[in-house]
Design goal:
The complex is a heterodimer of chains A (235) and B (431). By secondary structure, chain A is an alpha/beta fold. Helices cover 33% and strands 29% of the residues of chain A. In chain B, the strands form 2 sheets. A 6-stranded mixed beta barrel of chain B has the order 3-4-9-6-8-7. Chain B has a two-stranded antiparallel ribbon with strand order 2-10. Classes of the chains: A alpha/beta (235), B alpha+beta (431).
């Protein structure tokens, strides 16, 4: 099993005038290729901060971060963009679909920034939408879709470019429990069948239960990191 | 765990192309999408540029047309001509007429004896009269002049001939008609050989002139030209209070352009001498109009006017540009989350910059093109209907489009930089 993500002694300090907020205080975690990990912890514990670091949206104050063999901490803004485009897929709590674009166009959008030709983008977007069960909604716009369907489109968008890791910060935060379950099953299926490495952040134990491993964070450090025993979904 | 082997990799890894990065075509599509998303706003934003460019194009075109028209009219008068008029030289106010001795045939003689390198002098004596033919009658201008008038004013005859020096000597009852006047009196029929009446006197038409266009003293096309002797002695009251034969003005055509200043000076000196005026010109009661210098200053005035109009129009283009900037700033704020999303999924900061730059430029260019079309309508209609020659020049089109593109660039750069500098995390959290 190969390490997809290696984080060692990662800290993040936000400076707000005289104040310093230590959002991460030395996080060590290794995530292997093909793992499905849930990050849990109380509000303000640093989950989103950690996800932003993993997502190459921000750089840590100190520590090492290696993603799929790339030393991320030393990259500049352009290189970080390139890493995000090629290695990562994001799923947001608020779906973040472009309101006027069809599902297909939304899923194609990230690939535009990688110079992938239009025909290939379309093929990939179609496959990705089919994978999340939205194959019959290609031309629907977000306002013609339910929240759960919108989140599926967002998942398709994250996976269409064959990323190394899919990151989802509270992907079910805006959904009811039944829809949440469906979304989690979809993610679980993508993990099992496509071998995608998936990391989610959640407050809810029910949601975390779909993952194979649960990392609990408190005050910017890893409190527990254990295999999920009360496993939900398909074994 | 044999997970790796059991994977069904439906989505194979992307084989990255050599020229990774965003094509401009895609950016253009993205920009067009967002412009189409709010059509009314897009249109209103463009309206500023449309109005600006349309006024630049139409004002420049009409201004050029006007200055061409004026230049042509004055050139038709003969740019080497000097015209002597009664009245005090215009020194800031209207020409004074009080205590002015009229120009007379004596003055004409004074000039003639100077033996200057000129054609003429040609005395002109103008009066209003009723002109009537069998079918039509109107009040028009009768110009009494000499046979030299034809050469000095480069008159071309449409039919017949100009009256002769002999006609002038004997005060013959003959007339030469301007082209408009001929059409009015005789329609398309033959005029030469026919008679018309000037007031109550019968005169024979000996010639019709080609159309020549207007001049500041009224268009010759509307005039009836008769021997000056006839006008002075029989048609009109030609004697001044002192009993001399009056003339309205005197024209001379200087043979060589270089001689104009010298001739002008000699004329003035001779007239002052003959009329017993101060030699330094302080109490001149006549003035010499120099077509060439008048034309030069006129051209300066019209080009200044054109520039001024263009500048005023340019200001509205500036306002249009500020409109674009304003809307782009709003658009960046409104779309902060979209920008955050695009950055998160891999757009580089320069991709965002370009997206918004292109958007601003599409706005300004579409506005510019529409403006050129709108601004060309009036000049084109005027030109086609032959009311006024104002052809739309390529230069005004190129200038307007360049300026509107520059407007888009200039006013787009700030909002676009704001967008490009957004931190992706904060942008995603916006609202
Ligand atoms: N941009 C920032 N500037 C200053 N402080 C920040 C910033 N982002 C996060 N923080 C602080 O860092 C700490 C961790 O925040 P983070 O968003 O990672 O928490 P979280 O675990 O995701 O919480 P929640 O469950 O409520 O989303 C908090 O104290 C927060 O106030
Ligand atoms: Mg959070």
């Amino acid at each position: 099993m190969t390490a997809m993500i290696t984080i060692e002694g990662m800290t993040k300090v936000y400076t707000m005038g005289e104040f310093e907020v230590h959002a991460l205080r030395g996080v060590n975690v290794t995530i292997n290729s093909g793992e499905f990990v849930a990050i849990m912890g109380p509000s303000g514990s640093g989950k989103s901060t950690l996800m932003n670091m993993i997502g190459c949206l921000d750089t840590p104050t100190a520590g090492r971060y290696q993603l799929d063999g790339i030393e991320v901490a030393s990259l500049n803004d352009n290189d970080l963009s390139a890493v995000r485009a090629r290695k990562l897929g994001f799923v947001f709590q608020q779906y973040m679909l472009l309101p006027r674009q069809t599902a297909l166009a939304n899923v194609e959008m990230p690939m535009v920034y990688r110079g992938i030709p239009a025909s290939e983008r379309k093929r990939r977007a179609t496959v990705a939408l089919e994978l999340v069960g939205m194959g019959n909604r290609l031309d629907h716009r977000p306002n013609e879709l339910s929240g759960g369907q919108q989140q599926r489109v967002a998942i398709a968008r994250a996976l269409a470019g064959s990323p190394s890791v899919i990151l989802a910060d509270e992907p079910t935060g805006a959904l009811d429990s039944t829809t949440s379950e469906e979304i989690m099953l979809t993610l679980q299926q993508l993990n099992r069948e496509q071998g995608l490495t998936i990391i989610i952040v959640t407050h809810e134990a029910d949601i975390a239960a779909y993952a194979d491993r649960i990392v609990t964070i408190r005050d910017g450090v890893v409190l527990h990191d254990r295999k999920n025993e009360a496993h939900h979904g398909v074994e | 765990m044999a997970l790796n082997n059991s994977k069904r990799q439906i989505l194979a890894p992307v084989t990255e192309s050599k020229s990774n990065g965003l094509e401009y075509g895609e950016l253009l599509r993205v920009s067009m999408d967002s412009l189409m998303a709010n059509k009314l706003r897009t249109f209103l934003t463009m309206l500023g540029v449309i109005i600006g460019v349309a006024s630049v194009v139409s004002l420049m075109t009409l201004g050029n047309g006007a200055s061409n028209a004026i230049t042509n009219q004055f050139s038709s008068l003969g740019t080497n001509n000097l015209t002597i008029l009664p009245g005090r030289p215009n020194r800031g106010g209207p020409p004074g007429q009080i205590g002015v001795q009229p120009l007379t045939m004596t003055d004409v003689k004074t000039i003639r004896v100077l033996k200057l390198p000129i054609n003429g002098p040609v005395p002109n004596f103008t009066n209003q009269a009723t002109l009537s033919a069998a079918a039509a009658e109107k009040s028009g201008q009768v110009l009494g002049t000499t046979a030299e008038y034809k050469d000095v004013n480069t008159i071309v005859m449409a039919s017949g001939s100009f009256f002769s020096e002999g006609n002038v000597q004997s005060a013959s009852q003959v007339v030469v008609l301007g082209s408009n006047l001929k059409t009015f009196l005789f329609g398309s029929g033959e005029a030469v050989g026919e008679s018309i009446r000037i007031n109550s006197m019968n005169v024979r038409v000996v010639g019709v002139m080609e159309a020549k266009g207007g001049n500041p003293f009224g268009s010759v096309d509307d005039q009836a030209l008769v021997p000056i002797t006839l006008a002075q002695s029989r048609l009109f009251a030609g004697r001044s209070t002192s009993g001399e034969l009056r003339v309205s003005n005197i024209t001379v055509a200087v043979k060589n352009t270089e001689d104009i200043p010298f001739v002008e000076e000699r004329l003035k000196m001779a007239l002052r001498d003959a009329r017993k005026l101060n030699a330094d010109g302080t109490d001149d009661d006549f003035q010499v109009l120099n077509q060439a210098s008048f034309l030069t200053s006129l051209t300066q005035v019209t080009s200044l006017l054109t520039t001024f109009l263009a500048a005023v129009a340019g200001i509205s283009l500036l306002v249009g540009g500020i409109g674009i900037m304003n809307i782009m700033l709003v658009s960046v704020t409104e779309r902060t989350r979209e920008i955050g999303l695009r950055r998160a999924v891999g757009a580089q900061s320069k991709d965002i910059l370009l997206q918004f730059m292109i958007e601003a430029m599409v706005l300004s260019m579409l506005g510019g093109i529409t403006g050129v079309i709108v601004g060309s309508i009036l000049p084109i209609i005027l030109t086609i209907t032959k009311i006024f020659e104002a052809p739309v020049t390529l230069s005004s089109v190129i200038i307007s489009l360049t300026v509107s593109l520059a407007t888009g660039l200039f006013f787009g750069i700030w909002p676009a930089r704001n967008a490009a500098r957004l931190n992706p995390i904060q942008a995603l959290r916006h609202e």
